[in-house]
Amino acid sequence: MLLVEDDEPLRDRFARILAAWPGGRLVAACATLAEAVQALQGARVDLLITDLRLPDGHGTQAIRLLRSLHPAAEAMVISVLADDATVIEAIEAGAAGYLLKDADSIELVEAIEELRAGRSPISSSIARIIVRRLGGAPAVPLAEALTPRETEILWGIARGLTYAELAQQLGISKQTVPVHIKNVYRKLEATNRSEAVFNATQRGLIRL
Amino acid sequence: MKKAALALLACLGLLLLAGAPFLPRLVQIEGGQVLDRAFVLAPGARQEVETALPHTWPPRHQGGDAEYRYRLHFGLPEAPREPLYLFLPLVSQRAAIALNGVELMDTGNRSLSTGITSGVTVFVRLPADRLAAGANTLDVRVAAAGVMRGHLSPPRVGSAQALGPHYRLGLFLLEHLRLMALAGQLLLMVAVLAAWLYRPVEPLFGWLLLMQVLSLPQYAGLRSDLPGVQEALPYVLMASSSASFILPIIALLINGMAVPRWLQWCVAAVPCLGIALALLPALPVWQVMLALSLPAVVLAVWAAAAITAAGALRGVREARLLLVPMLLFALALLHDVAQVAGWIDGAVLLGAYYRMVLMIGIAVILMRRLGLSLMRLDGANARLRQELAQREAELARLHEEERREAAQRVRSEERQRLTVDLHDGLSGHLASIIALAERERSAVIERSAREALDDLRVVIHSLDIGDRELTVALAGLRERLARQLKRLGVELDWSTARLPEISGVTPTHALAVLRIVQEAVTNAVRHGPATRIAVRGEPHGAAQAAIVVENDGVPFPRSGCGGGAGLENMRRRAELLGGEVRWETPQGGGARVAVLLPLQLPVHGGAI
Q: What is the domain range of residue B46?
C-alpha cells in the first residue's frame, strides 16, 4: 500500500492506522507527488491511497501512473469534501473508491476491504453527475456501453434509493450493487483514457 | 326588411330592362294618319301583293342583298296648312322613300350607319310643293343584307309636334342605345384589362378580357357600308362568336368549378371549324353560319345560363348576381334566332342590347370582389396588428424574465463559487484538527470538529441541488447520517421512496430541509437514547409531503415541547418553507417528529 497525503497530522493518522492493520503492508507515506512517483516506480504497489491536492501536482497523475504500471492495482482517493467534481475526476483517472478524510480507522479498513472485494462506493450526487454526463448534451459516448442493469442501478441511486431498496426493486443481492458500480467506474476510466488519446491526437500531440 | 325592398326593386328594374325593347310598342302613337296597308313587290315577284303593315319579310337563308318595294297611298283632304312629316317607326334595314315619284331620302346616306342588327327610324319632312290634295303615293324601297329579314312598320303622316317625340324615342332606343352598348363594352374591357394586369393569377379576369376582346369585331357591322365589310361579315361574326363559348367558362369559374380542357379548346375550335367549312366553295357561308355557328352559340349561352342557375341554387353569391343578366341574354339570343329563322316577326336583334345587361352583371361582380377583398384586407390588417402587439408584449415579457433569471443565475453562481472557495480551505483545516484531536485523545474537540466538517459538507452539497431534487439532497444526508449513526451504534432505517415530488426547490430550501431533519435525528440520538431511528418520506394528504423521524427512545414530555433553541429553529425553518413540524408520541412508544412540507415550496422563503 502507498499513502500520499500532504497534510502532516492526517498523514500520520492514516499511516498509523494502516500500519496497525494486519491485512496489508504500508510501503511508504509520501507527502508530495514526486515522492509518490518515485515510490511507485521503485516498489510493487497494489493499493494506492492518495489525496488529490498535492503541493507539487495532482493526485490523479499518481493514479494514472499506478494504473499504467500495475493494471491490477487499485487506487482510492481521500478527499475532505468528496464533492462530485473531485470524485468524478478521480474515477476517470482510474480510482475505484473514495474516502473522506475524517474517516476513522474502522471506516478506512472497511473501505480497503470493500475495494479489494471488487466493490465501489457511490453517493447519490455522484450517480446523478454520471447519469447527467451520459444523457446530457453533448452526450459522452462510452468506450464500452453500460449494461441495462448498470443503468438501472445508476438511476436508482441518483434518485436517492438505498442499496437495500434498490436490491429489492431489481431482485438482486445488496452486495452485488457495489460490484456493478465498480464496473461503471472502470468504463468511465476507459472512456476517459480513450478521450485523452483522441484529444491529444486532435491537438497533434500524439501521432498514431 | 331592407333586403326585401332591395330585392323587389331589383326585380322591377330587371323586368323593365327585359321589356325595354317592347316598350315602344306599348306606347300608342297618337296623332297623324296611320298608313297600315301597302302593296308589296317582293324581289323576283312579278306582281304587287296587298299586305297589312307591319310587315316582315319571310325568312331568307340565302343571304345576299334583297329589296322589297312598298307602295302606300294616303289621302289629304286639302293642301295642308302646317308642315307634314312622315314618320316611319321602324324600318329594317335601309329605306329609300319617294313621295309622288320624287325621292325624299335614303337612310343609307345618313351620318351614322347602324349596321345589320338594328332597324332605323325615319322622320322626314314632306315637301309642301310635292303634296297634293287628294291621293298621294309613297314609294318605300326597303333593302336588307345578309340573312336579315326586312321589316316595315306602318308609317304615319302628321305634324312635328305629334310625331316628333315618338321619333326621338325611337332614335334613342334603336340607335343611341346601340352605341352606348359599344361604349360600355369598351369601358368594361379597359376595366377588366386593368384587373387582369394587376392580378394575372385570377383566371376569371383573363377569360373576361378575352371575351370582351373577341366580341368587339361584332361591331364591324357598324361599318357595313364600307366595301368588303359586308362580304367579310359572316366570317367576322363566326370568329367573334368564340366569345360566346367563353361564357360557360366564366359561369364555371364563378361557381368555383374546374374548367375542362375540351371546353377551352371549343373556344377556338368551333369558330375555326365554321370558318374552314365556309371557305369551302361548296358551302354557302350563311348556310354554314346558320347551321353550325348559330346553334353552337345558342347552346353555349344556354349552357352558361344553366351552370349559373345551378350555382345560384347552390348558394354561390356571384352566380346569383349573374343569373338574371345571363338568362336575359340567353332569352334575347333565342329571340334573335327565332326572328332570323322566321318564327317571330320583328326588326330588332336584341342580342347587342342584352349583352350590355350581361356586362353590367359582370361589372357588379367585379366591384363586389373589390369591395370584399378590401374588407378582408382591413380585417386582416387589424388582426395582424393585434397579433403583432400581442407578440411584442409577449417578447418584452420574456425578455424581462430572461434578464431577471440571468441576473439571478449570475448571483447564485457567484455565491456558490464564494462558498466553495470559503469552505475549501476551511474543510482541510478541520480534517487536520480531527486528526490532531485524535492524536491528543481529546474526544470533545474531535466531535466538535467532526460536526463542523459535516455541516460544511451539508452546505457544499446543497449548492448542487436543483429543482425537484430534494430526494437527492436527502440521500446525501442519509449517507452522512449513516456514517455518524454507525459510529454510535444506532441502526438507521431510511426510506424516501414514497416521498412525493416537491417543486420550487432551491439550494437554500434544500439546506433548510436538511438542517431540520438533521436536527430531528440529532435530537433523537441525544435525548433518546435510541437504538433504532427510522426516517420515512411519504405523502401527507393531498397537498403535503411528510418526512417522519421516529425513534424508540424516550417519548416527548407531555407538557408540550417547548424547550430548546434547536426546536425553535426547526419550527422557524419549517414555517419559512411553508410547512410545519409536529412532535408526536406514537402508539408503540418512542417519539416521532413529522416535518410537513407543501408540494410547492415558496419562492423567497426558507432563508437561513
A: 31-174
